[in-house]
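Researcher: Predict the fold of Proteasome subunit beta.
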Amino acid sequence: MTSIVWDGKSLAGDGRLTVNGYIVDSYFSKVRKINANLRGERVIAIGLSGDADAHHYIESWIKNDCLDDLPDCMEIGGIIVTESKAYSFCDDSNGRLCLINDSFAVGSGAPLCLSALKLGLNAKEAVKHAASIDVYTGGRVRSICCRE
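Model: Structure tokens for Proteasome subunit beta follow.
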């Protein structure tokens, strides 16, 4: 799977892409900026965990204000950061967005990342920590600063 982390300021994610337990890419961009608005606010960045083929669908879903249900066939979760809020979503939430109050993580390395955040690491450091333990987290770590 992956590790996507929001620490209240930055969104970070790893670059490892796996298929059937094999590493096929270490530089996949799971965290990226998109040009969209969500609930009247500019979206700054998204981080996606799960089905890599779903990235383009998720961007369309966000641009449609997340009004449609996510298809049952997709195994996907993620974090959306707007100008003043952050939201989480997953394939079993029926397309509902959950407001994130503080920090949050999704993916196989999420528990490790949340633990790292509690110990004072930032989002990028938390992903690097998870990559040292979780076999499905690894490769290049990308971080996008969303708040000063």
